[in-house]
What does this fold into?
Amino acid sequence: MTINAASMQKDVYKEFHSRAYHPDVTEVYANYTSRSGKLSNVENNDKVVFVGLQYFIKSYLQEEWQAFFVADKESAVANHRRVMSAMLGYPVDVSYLEALHDLGYLPLRVKALPEGTLVPYQVPPITIVNTKPGFEWLTNMIETVLSCENWPIQTSATTSVAYLKVFREFAEKTGLPADIVPFQGHDFSFRGMFGKHAAAMSGFGHLASGLVGTDTIPAVLFAEKYYGANVDEELVGCSVDATEHSVTCSWILEGEIEFFRYLMREQSPTGILSVVSDTWDFWKLVTEYLPLLKEEIMARNGTVVIRPDSGDPVKILTGYRLSPVSEYSGLFNSQHEAEQAAVGEGFEAYRWQGEYYGCVEGETQRLELCEVKGLIECLWGTFGGTFTDKGYKLLDEHIGAIYGDAITLTRQRQILQRLMDKGFASKVVLGIGSFSYQYVTRDTHGSAVKATSVVKGNQRIAIFKEPKTDSNKRSAKGLLKVDRVDGELVCFDNVTEAEEQQGLLQVVFEDGQLVKETTLREIRGLISTQI
It folds into this structure.
């Protein structure tokens, strides 16, 4: 028995729909739209990155359905009949699938905007319709899988673009060379994703934005398989030699100085070397070990990147906001009064009797000067650097920093702003993990597939949903056309058949064939022109 899953990539209730549509309906026309940013994970977001459709076409509409069509008819429908009959509790009639097998291809037309387009809410980047009467059930049968396979990639790409825009913003403000920006956001999400395929899909969304740093190998393979990428000819994604805690711990007897020397001399004498640095005492490594290693680091042909992995990433990288009053003891009668004054003025640290103290979330803790400065300022103090054309400090090319844990969009902006406030260019790499890429749902951008038009008899009828209990779920009506008005994409609904053939939605798939193909390079280029 050939087990074919293509016809079962749907909700069970859709099995009934081939019989439930009005008998006179011969065509169903639907669209995919992100309806609302009310729950968006990106603050003040107004557009969603459209990307991922070509993967859906190649993997599902072509690869999976091809197995259905090449099998003999009985084998093609047998497992579908068996599983659906068991789930519904009655013998399922599969004659509609047999008719599809006799036809020999998927009678569908998919139109879309170019992948890489930043699409406003309420504007559909995809429409889909059956091309032959008798297969009207097919359009919305694939609704479930169309939604399932498209919203995650688009959501990750939208998140990634948000990170990229902030990196670009601060690079421009501080004079950081623009060619560094694509490497500043690094995808570390693989281990936290909902399975390896989810990691590949989301990781492709990360790469599509134009960010190239990634440790998610399946995302690069995904780009090659579905989007014409080629690692031999272009920079699809990249990473560096890097350690983890288990590796550091294996040098527990010899110590971290010998560990650094071994890596630099024996294993990674050139290029970028990232070393996780908080396995034990992070600030001791920064203030004692790195100065001892300075000569070797500066002589090395490459960059040693220091990677903290715990604590508050904002404060680890940028330090504490220190009160400009260097010594409160002459102004106040007690440390408590001094602390209250510092907190009241919006500072996070102050000096009292020659010592530094932090006042965070109601708790007082004594701080070392290095903690007050933060990693970037400490590295500057040891290794120095140059100044950008806008007057900001730029760490020497032999040393760098990456923080790969708990970097939200909010913390990203805080880190870059605080570095700028301290006079530093935004030369730091930040990891983007599964919290950012997976703490989302289909509702994050309100993504949904809805039918808006049918042909019933010889008459085209605009259909729509407009629940009185939730206006956000209102759908468009009738045939749709997307065009630009004053530079912005706008959806026109209930248009004529002639008008529907105009506009920016172009046929990308028809009757089993991919008729318009795009590449990762083209997607990145298009996104870059819009941000």
Remarks:
- Residues 129 and 139 are 6 Å apart (CA to CA).
